[in-house]
């Protein structure tokens, strides 16, 4: 048998694809040819090693495993506040909304200088420029609110008097049955607005 043919038959033999007659012929050649016999033995060893590798799991040494893990890039640490935001989206949205509302309200408070008068029985008051007057002998039945102006009370107010970003003068003849509030700070004004807004929503 030719050595080239023997090498070809060796692979088929190791793969169990060789017929019985061809296997007998190959074995006879291997007994007579030391080179082919040596090659067959090496191929057989290699085949056994591949079989063992496929059917058995080999654990990597701890040192190698640790070295590989340490060489991997470290994950970036998220900032604490970013993690908190991700865990509390509803609270974050509410806080952002409140901030926007506060800044926009303060901006409006600073830019709005128009006189505003609110209340019942406004026909009982006199407005002169930026001054709102409750004349002596007149009665305002209910609350009176004045924004961005001066308030002078000589008569009676049967309710609260609230002055926002302005001044209040009470004569000795004045009678106010409710509370008197003077609001000159942006945060106080904002709180007043928020309270009013929620009161109106609850009322309607």
Automatic annotation (TrEMBL):
Q: Where is the Putative zinc-finger domain?
A: 3-36
Q: Which domain of life is it from?
A: Bacteria
Q: Which InterPro entries match?
A: Anti_sigma_zinc_sf, Znf_put
Family, as annotated = Belongs to the zinc-associated anti-sigma factor (ZAS) superfamily. Anti-sigma-W factor family.
Name this protein carries in UniProt? Anti-sigma-W factor RsiW
Which Gene3D superfamilies does the record associate with it? Anti-sigma factor, zinc-finger domain (1.10.10.1320)
Annotated source species: Paenibacillus sediminis
């Amino acid at each position: 048998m030719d050595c080239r043919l023997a090498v070809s038959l060796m692979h088929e033999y190791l793969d169990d694809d060789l017929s019985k007659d061809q296997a007998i012929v190959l074995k006879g050649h291997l007994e007579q040819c030391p080179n082919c016999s040596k090659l067959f033995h090496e191929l057989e060893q290699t085949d056994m090693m591949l079989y063992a590798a496929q059917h058995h799991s080999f654990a990597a040494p701890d040192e190698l495993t640790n070295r590989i893990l340490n060489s991997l890039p470290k994950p970036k640490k998220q900032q604490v506040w970013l993690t908190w935001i991700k865990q509390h989206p509803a609270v974050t949205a509410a806080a952002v909304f409140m901030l926007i509302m506060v800044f926009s309200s303060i901006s409006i408070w600073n830019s709005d200088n128009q006189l505003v008068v609110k209340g019942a029985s406004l026909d009982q008051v006199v407005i002169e420029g930026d001054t709102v007057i409750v004349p002596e002998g007149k009665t305002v039945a209910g609350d009176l609110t004045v924004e961005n102006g001066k308030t002078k009370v000589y008569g009676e107010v049967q309710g609260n008097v609230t002055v926002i970003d302005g001044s209040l003068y009470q004569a000795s003849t004045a009678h106010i049955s409710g509370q008197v509030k003077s609001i000159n700070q942006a945060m106080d004004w904002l709180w007043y607005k928020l309270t009013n807004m929620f009161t109106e929503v609850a009322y309607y």
